[in-house]
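ok trying again, last paste got cut off:
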Amino acid sequence: MHFAQFNLVFSLFLLPLLATARPFNSHQYRRTSGHGPPPSQRSQPEIAGISPEYYSLGCPRNTTSPHATQREQLEALISYAQLLYIEQDVAQAYHTHAATNFINHAPEVPGDGTAIAIATQTPMLKGGSVQIQRQFTGYNLTGTAFGVTYFKGISPVEGVGVIADIWRMQGTCLLEHWDVAEGATLNTTMNPHPYF
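nice, full thing came through this time. structure:
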């Protein structure tokens, strides 16, 4: 897919979705297991301009910032994708860039948070490779920051796939995740330059 076509698809389909996203209500996602966040992340004061989720979801404060420029957010997203997909250091990617209790909407992952994501994705990525095609960050109409990584995944089991990884961000911390994936059957498409 050419960059102009990707921009057209993004502006027609993804941007309206992101622009109408409702603000996150953290009260919907209270933990019920009785295991709260570590003491260093409990009862943090709300500071003007910082979402309480930065603290309640457990953003790593030694490697993320609650305030960031769009460029700094893009650099964080690039670093996360490099660690996760290229170096396949799944634990380091999540522990460096994602909130400990981030909200995960990926259908192949059985829950929220870094521990479940690491346990699920580590074996999924083994033996495969990723070619990152596009990455960008931006804001919807409510001022919520999002980052998108669009890539080609090659798995010995699943074959070739095209994936869009979408993150809601607070500063440089990854708070909420969605992904969209489909198999890339390059020899059966009508388009002369499909997917990438």
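cool. The mean pLDDT is 80. Strands lie at 98-104, 129-139, 145-155, 159-170, 173-183.
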